[in-house]
């Protein structure tokens, strides 16, 4: 069973990546923060007594379900707002998708300001292209390659088959590679 400290350490370690996933999904900072907070609260309240090894998978499943719930609520809210008002809500706000990226041990860290600028420009292009992916492809791509989950874990978190995960990841990879190649970026 996970101790309070293990649960706390896990939530601290996952918060930035979870926020980024939610931002990619909903494109609204306040909503993304709410989604991550809700997912963390659900994990702590309902699954805090589970072994620490189970926490990453449980959290990802809770996070993805919370994002889906957000879209369901938004759809219903939009329907009623449209029916009851001739004014449509304007929920789109400008936001900066870039955040500082903490480097892991052994990862490439640019040494010169020019290298840092190039890296930030490439990351901005990659993030923009990830935002343009269809929701299921983006979800599979982020879980597999950002959260480093295997196919079975990703399928469990997404609530679909392993074959669907492979298909979504393959399509996302091809789309991203073509988009980056079209912009002259080779990795």
TrEMBL record:
Instruction: Extract the ranges annotated as region (Disordered).
Output: 90-114
Question: Residue spans with biased composition (Polar residues)?
Answer: 100-114
Write the Enzyme Commission number(s) for this entry.
Answer: 2.7.7.6
The protein's matches in CDD domains, at most eight in alphabetical order, are given as: Sigma70_r4 (cd06171)
Write out the entry's keywords from A to Z: Nucleotidyltransferase, Sigma factor, Transcription, Transcription regulation, Transferase
Q: Which Pfam families match?
A: Sigma70_r4_2 (PF08281)
Q: List GO BP terms, alphabetically.
A: DNA-templated transcription initiation
* Single Gene Ontology MF annotation: sigma factor activity
The cross-references to InterPro entries, in alphabetical order and at most eight, read: RNA_pol_sigma-70-like, RNA_pol_sigma-70_dom, RNA_pol_sigma70_r4_t2, RNA_pol_sigma_r2, RNA_pol_sigma_r3/r4-like, WH-like_DNA-bd_sf
Where the record annotates domain RNA polymerase sigma factor 70 region 4 type, the positions are 126-172
User: Can you tell me which family this protein belongs to?
Assistant: Belongs to the sigma-70 factor family. ECF subfamily.
Give the protein's recorded name.
Answer: RNA polymerase sigma factor
């Amino acid at each position: 069973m996970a101790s309070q400290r293990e649960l706390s350490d896990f939530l601290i370690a996952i918060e930035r990546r979870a926020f980024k996933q939610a931002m990619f999904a909903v494109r609204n900072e306040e909503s993304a923060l709410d989604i991550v907070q809700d997912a963390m609260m659900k994990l702590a309240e309902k699954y805090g007594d589970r072994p620490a090894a189970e926490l990453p998978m449980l959290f990802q499943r809770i996070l993805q379900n919370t994002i889906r719930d957000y879209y369901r609520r938004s759809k219903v809210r939009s329907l009623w707002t449209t029916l009851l008002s001739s004014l449509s809500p304007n929920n789109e706000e400008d936001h900066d998708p870039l955040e500082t990226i903490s480097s892991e041990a052994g990862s490439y860290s640019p040494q010169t300001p020019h290298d840092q600028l190039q890296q930030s420009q490439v990351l901005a292009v990659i993030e923009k292209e990830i935002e343009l992916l269809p929701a299921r492809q983006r979800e599979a791509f982020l879980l597999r390659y950002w959260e480093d989950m295997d196919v079975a874990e990703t399928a469990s978190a997404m609530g679909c088959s392993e074959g669907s995960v492979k298909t979504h990841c393959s399509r996302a990879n091809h789309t991203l590679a073509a988009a980056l190649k079209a912009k002259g970026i080779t990795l």
